[in-house]
Amino acid sequence: MAMADREDFSDIDRHHILSIAGDDKNARKVIVVSACRLPPKTEINHDKLFRYMQYTLDQYVENDYSIVYLHHGLNSENRPSISWLVHVYHVLDRKYKKNLKALFIVHTTGFVKVIWSVLKPFISTNFAKKVVYANRLSDLEEHLYLAQIDIPELVKKHDQEISARYEPTYSPAVSGTALDISLPETQQFGVTLERIKSHTGEDIPSAVQCTVEFLRESGLEVEGLFRRSANITVAKAYTASFNRGETVQFVQEKDIHVAAVLLKKFLRELPEPLLTFQLYDDDIMRIHALPDEEKVEEVVRVLKSALPRQNYIVLKYLMEFLVQVTNNAHLNKMNASNLAIVFGPNLIWTESAVASLSSTGAINSIVKIIIENVPSIFG
């Protein structure tokens, strides 16, 4: 991909055909493909589109990842040829398919069935098991954080029309108390850092401290740390234990990837990202555009002036740990660049959930700067 690394994809990227949506509920990177954003065939070079797809996937295929394909909006005007689709499947070899853990196909039509019948002789049983069909967006809620996925308005409207067909013609009875369920004071996941601090007195949430301490002791030399997914049932059980305020004891070796998943899950489920919506809107692209020699100084200034106190404390704690991970990169293969790819989308995202290739690259670049300059930034 050396040639693709130098190629300008801005003409493709501006359509937002592909977007990055952080992690799914099993801590796997999510890449969203929106068919409705494909321009007419006369306005796009499909060979270049394929190279763009490869370029995007190459940043994530070393990690476990999922793809969400939103099929609605594909039509005779913008639909690539069947021969092109077959070519794409063949060229995307085992490197791309090995760590793809789920392919969610939403709003299928007869065309999808045609493509499947054409590809079926070449599709392995293992790959076929990864395909999940979803008639409605709500079918994805078990697997994905829908609010954090870039879903085109055209797809949302189509989904609403489908959902209307399934809505009951009566209002089911609802218990008054069922609408007022409060979270326990010990809640860790899905609540603000300020709430955790006010209820528990913890500057570092126990879910973060416990996972980091365990990984610091047992996981620093594990190859592919933070790249692998974990058993979702086990992860849910540990999540519930943390939320109940219980003391969690991980099982050495067996739970290393579970602990890594839980740390990313905690960050992803914060109501507002650790690096805040404001920093995304005001500073990410601006800092990314600065000359390299000015970036570190500006990152220091922004983090110290713009981050809330609790965010700053947790970020410092996390980054000091990630430095320890990079110090063992010769064993775990997780240098600053790889960690930035893994943690970037879990540390900052926009309220609109749109993360194009250019913005994702900027996020990863800033996170890499933070990891590589911890003493200067937090000293």
UniProtKB/TrEMBL annotation:
Q: Could you tell me the Gene Ontology terms of the biological process aspect for this record?
A: negative regulation of endocytic recycling; small GTPase-mediated signal transduction
Mind telling me which GO cellular component terms the entry cites? cytoplasm
* PROSITE patterns, sorted: CRAL_TRIO, RHOGAP
Q: Which Gene3D superfamilies match?
A: CRAL-TRIO lipid binding domain (3.40.525.10), Rho GTPase activation protein (1.10.555.10)
Q: Name one GO molecular function term.
A: GTPase activator activity
**InterPro entries, alphabetically?**
CRAL-TRIO_dom (IPR001251), CRAL-TRIO_dom_sf (IPR036865), Rho_GTPase_activation_prot (IPR008936), RhoGAP_dom (IPR000198)
Q: Where are the transmembrane segments?
A: none
What Pfam family is a match, any one? CRAL_TRIO_2
- Matches recorded under PANTHER family: RHO GTPASE-ACTIVATING PROTEIN 68F
Q: What is the protein name for this chain?
A: Rho GTPase-activating 8 isoform X5
